[in-house]
């Protein structure tokens, strides 16, 4: 007897889960989230999941309650005898805390991986981790989707002449190089130095952008400080235009204001995190079809590598 697929959503990602379920062709399962008077959450499945392949969709962006709700849903599915539990985490929070870059600091992404395993997850699906090696923190399979499947068709549609790809920092060189290889374009690097988190001390451009249409690629846009400085520096060096493609629109603090005031022609993001406000400069591209296809392939024991765009 074929196992039944059931797709559920946490509170934070319901807007995306509804689209994924529609693309997959299955109804979104019913989850009830009750709260005690002190704010404690108590989510539960309002239908049987016994023997089912359960996919729980929830990004773990702030507040941390979103992550804890996901953990509780995984635990509930395990205790309700689900056959297989996949956590679909479009944006994996705490991914920037992936190493000991100074003494006495926590490695948050490893801790989150441990919490997901302890809750009872049997598989994790996510998109554009801050560092791909975070997959090694898990003792369960990880399906790491690539936003290039969403961004590349958009870039093609722009029909940009003299295209050049830019990495906003040294950590993004590998990602930028993959885009550059695909488009047979050159690459430049914005080398930044930080005083502390979210505060840049200095930035240097490595490479020539004069007369070029520049595409910056990154995994996260948070305060937009790096992007706005990089865009201005690139335009000051004689570029025709500069656009930024960033998978996860965290956009905290003065980010929206910075984007509006920046030299960016456009900021293109994915809908892994909902936009808090609309902006004429920000375009959010849908990811539901990609996640629905990946869910179908996981359920069918088929490779997901065909979903990736390769140079």
Compose a concise summary of this entry.
This protein is of the alpha/beta class and 311 residues long.
What would you note in describing this structure?
- With 311 residues, the chain is α/β, with parallel strands linked by helices.
- The chain has two domains: 5-146 and 288-307, Rossmann fold, CATH 3.40.50.2020; 148-285, Rossmann fold (3-Layer(aba) Sandwich), CATH 3.40.50.2020.
- Helix content is 29%, strand content 28%.
- The chain contains eight helices and 14 strands.
- The strands form three sheets. The protein has a seven-stranded mixed beta sheet, sandwiched between helices.
- Helix 3 links the parallel strand 5 and strand 6 (123-127).
- Helix 1 crosses helix 8.
- The longest helix has 15 residues, at 65-79.
- The model has no long low-confidence stretch (mean pLDDT 93).
Instruction: Sketch the topology as an H/E string, one letter per element.
Output: EHEEEHEHEEHEHEEEHEHEEH
How many domains, as an integer? 2
Tell me the span between the first and last alpha carbons: 40 Å
Largest sheet: 7 strands, mixed
Instruction: Give the total of beta strands.
Output: 14
Beta-strand content: 25-35%
Fraction of residues in H or I helices: 25-40%
Return the average pLDDT rounded to an integer. Answer: 93
SS summary, helix count = 8
Question: What is the third-level CATH name, the topology of the largest domain?
Answer: Rossmann fold
Structural class: alpha/beta
Coarse morphology: globular
Low-confidence spans: none
Strand order of the largest sheet: 10-9-8-11-12-13-14
